[in-house]
Amino acid sequence: MSSSRDDYSKFTAVDAEIVGISMNHPLSQKAFSDFLKLNFPLLADFPDGKTSQAYGVFNADRRLAGRSYFIIDKQGVLRYKKVLAPKEGLVPNETLIEEVKKINQG
Amino acid sequence: MKTFSFLAAMILTLSLAGLSGTAAALEVGDKAPDFDLPSTQEGKFKLSSMVGKKNVIVQFYVLDFTPT
Fold this sequence. Notes:
Oligomer: heterodimer
Largest interface: A-B, 58 and 36 residues
Largest sheet of chain A: 2 strands, parallel
Shape of chain A: globular
CATH class of chain A: Alpha Beta
Number of helices of chain A: 5
Helix content of chain A: 25-40%
Number of strands of chain B: 3
Strand order of the largest sheet of chain A: 1-2
Order of helices and strands of chain A: HHEHEHEEEEH
CATH topology of chain A: Glutaredoxin
CATH architecture of chain A: 3-Layer(aba) Sandwich
């Protein structure tokens, strides 16, 4: 989340908004967001995880969302999807920005 | 007989639960499921409100206050 904060201007430069979604309580997210001084919103998929389920990243055993990335274009169509395996490294911001550039080029 | 009915009911329940879990996975090219969720900025964030305006990068994360 802090790396997305640091690169926020690079995301807005390619006409992209970032949102973080978790199944944590809105108040917990607010504290986390304030702590990191995030410049993009965190959204609470709380308490039932409906959005996590709709995106296929709901972990029923832990009742938590799994680490994953989705890029949605201006038509509302999913254009990139990456669901991380356990212990797999995060997707670099450069990769996400390249994907958005590809979408912008049509 | 009672035991049999119970087992039959249990198997039916489990198989139905299995079916509901096999909903088609979301794939690239699909319309992204809309959401309208409480935001740490101004009220709520509705995905479909960004149509025609911006690309949206959605990052699901596990827990607040962890690096994951």
